[in-house]
Amino acid sequence: MAKLELLPAVDVRDGQAVRLVHGESGTETSYGSPLEAALAWQSSGAEWLHLVDLDAAFGTGDNRALVAEVTRAMDIKVELSGGIRDDASLAAALATGCTRVNLGTAALETPEWVAKVIAEHGDKIAVGLDVRGTTLRGRGWTRDGGDLYETLERLDREGCARYVVTDIAKDGTLQGPNLELLKNVCAATDRPVVASGGVSSLDDLRAIADLVPLGVEGSIVGKALYAKAFTLEEALEAVL
Ligand SMILES: O=C(O)c1ccccc1N[C@@H]1O[C@H](COP(=O)(O)O)[C@@H](O)[C@H]1O
């Protein structure tokens, strides 16, 4: 059976690696240099880095040069997101050499553009389905953007390669992942799903790994690593 991929997260706000609670601006806890954090996850054995430009996602500026520097410094695969919403921001993101990008707001607000870039770039494009209940949220998770399952059906039709599914109610809370949501999304699509939000323990990761046969391919891990609930080495061992 395929093993669950783990994607330690580095979210960047105002030049710092931060974690938010429920993705709300103003709830930041700072963890210092994004490059140092990313290099630490790489040295601990990560095969992926989930790198987010939060200022670009919130529309409060950007950390584009810094996320490009971090991406270029990595020998591992990088999933890059935050503020990738048009040809220029997509070209800049892909030029960093990242393995794939994760689109959020654009999938809700400019579906024609997203269909076009999916057709052009295939599995270099993932779509982030960031939900409260079953309502998608965009623009830094501050605005409603439609129904999860209707959007999923449309993106499936357009050939979207994979989805990164975040339960906003869980994100940054260390309350455990929303396994029901993950199962429901896997039942609604045949595309791989990357889980995001709420991981607090090795048991949470094992529970997500149990969903690999249903279509879960990976899990983002953020707060739990920064809060030292477990080490990345322990996490990688737990999902072998
Ligand atoms: O990751 C977060 O904590 C987060 C919080 C608030 C907004 C966005 C967040 N992350 C990721 O940003 C992209 C969406 O950016 P955009 O809408 O395309 O500009 C997506 O990957 C979110 O999961």
From TrEMBL:
E.C. code: 5.3.1.16, 5.3.1.24
GO-annotated biological processes: L-histidine biosynthetic process; L-tryptophan biosynthetic process
Keyword rRNA-binding: no
CDD domains: HisA (cd04732)
Location of the UBA domain: 201-240
InterPro entries, per database record: Aldolase_TIM (IPR013785), His_biosynth (IPR006062), HisA/PriA (IPR023016), HisA/PriA_Actinobacteria (IPR010188), Isoase_HisA-like (IPR044524), RibuloseP-bd_barrel (IPR011060), UBA (IPR015940)
Record keywords, A-Z: Amino-acid biosynthesis, Aromatic amino acid biosynthesis, Cytoplasm, Histidine biosynthesis, Isomerase, Tryptophan biosynthesis
Pathway recorded for this protein: Amino-acid biosynthesis; L-histidine biosynthesis; L-histidine from 5-phospho-alpha-D-ribose 1-diphosphate: step 4/9; Amino-acid biosynthesis; L-tryptophan biosynthesis; L-tryptophan from chorismate: step 3/5
Family (UniProt): Belongs to the HisA/HisF family.
Protein name per Swiss-Prot or TrEMBL: Phosphoribosyl isomerase A
Lineage of the organism: Bacteria, Bacillati, Actinomycetota, Actinomycetes, Kitasatosporales
